[in-house]
Amino acid sequence: MTSNTKHANAFPTKRFFVDMLIKDIELHDAILDLLDNCLDGAMRTAAKQSGRDPVRPYDGFSAWIEFDQNSFCITDNCGGLPIQLAESYAFRMGRADSDRDNDLATVGVYGIGMKRAVFKLGKNTEILSRTTDGGFSVTITPDWLESDSNWELPINEQNDVLEAVGTKIFVTQLRDGIPRVFSNETDFERTLKTAISSYYGFIIEKGFKVFVNNEEIQPFKVSIIADNFDSNEGITPYIYEGNIGGVDVHITVGLYRELPNEEEEEAALIGRPSSERAGWTIVCNDRVILYADKTRVTGWGEASVPQYHTQFISIAGLVELRSNNASQLPLTTTKRGIDGNSELYLSIKDFMREGLKTFTDFTNKWKKSSKELHEINVQLSAIDPAIARANVPANKWSRVAKGVGGQRYRPNLPLPKEDDPPRQIRFSRKVSEINEVATYLFDDTSTPVGDVGAKCFDDVLRKARK
After folding, report:
1. Which of the two ends of the chain, N or C, has the fewest CB atoms closer than 10 A to its terminal CB?
2. What pTM value is reported for the model?
């Protein structure tokens, strides 16, 4: 019996590959991926230059983002892309060289950021780059995107492709819906600027400049209140630091502003102010990947930690992770989220919850407005978490003997005088009635029953005091 072996075509269609690649990334994240590439270029260039200020190592590096209903453009002066990398690496769908940049604290892991971003934006892309050794241009056309047989991109060498060293990516034939998003009809430009302020605040503080449609972006950065660490009466943060699996870890959590009074809590219940910065911010290699998070992802509502509530609007935490091997960091492919199943992150989260519980307990004890609370508030001022960590006296640290090791500082926080101690109120009502009241007060039947009861009591107490 003879055998006739044939072969099935298992090559992917390019349209399917591209469509799947861009399906799960938001437009904001696509643009921030391109900005990440600028920052990685600045980091590589700065590493080769001696004499840079360690506090502001990115002075002189900039990125300019411009867009309208017809096109998108991002330009930088961050050293450019060597043509050898363009030929072998930069345009591949995935990262083949896992050892590249293993001596630098970048965030590139998967090798899909730039390609996915330009595919998300449009169908015609021109990429121009110039280094001190030369330059090139590459054009991704609609025909190339439609062709399943052609996976190579022609590289045109041209030393003066740009006026100065750097990279420019220019996208036209924008995908459906993007022209309207880029128009004045939406709030996209403002939210993009806010995202860059939040997610790149650390890099901007270190000298990097970002411009969006000719406006320079100013940074948001986490600050923490820290009184004198030698005193046993002041407000200081909870701090952990260590090295876990080759990753340097710094955790700081405390108050970033004064404790709220009743009026502020009421205003926050109606609609939180846009400037509120409570919650956890997580930074990997100077890039913020979560900003002001108040969910279970960062420990709220887990174990003995309560869910986030407006009475906790003064609590903020910062997690800083650094490694020259970006694959060790608990990043998602968008670099705007945490891999919650990472062993590293699970270990870190234990300390996050411990520190968070310290300050939710503290806030609960000071919940009611009082003269004591006012006296505490007027004395508070916030500083950079790194300065707070450096100010902890050596004898105030305690060694973490179990688990991943490291050291931590536990604050000794002031307590209110117990001249009017609290008492617990308990009663039961039908679920339907509780839901009815929750809808009336919060327009949300999922509101915890304790919050519903507390709001009822507080409203009646306020009326009784008038």
Report:
1. N
2. 0.75
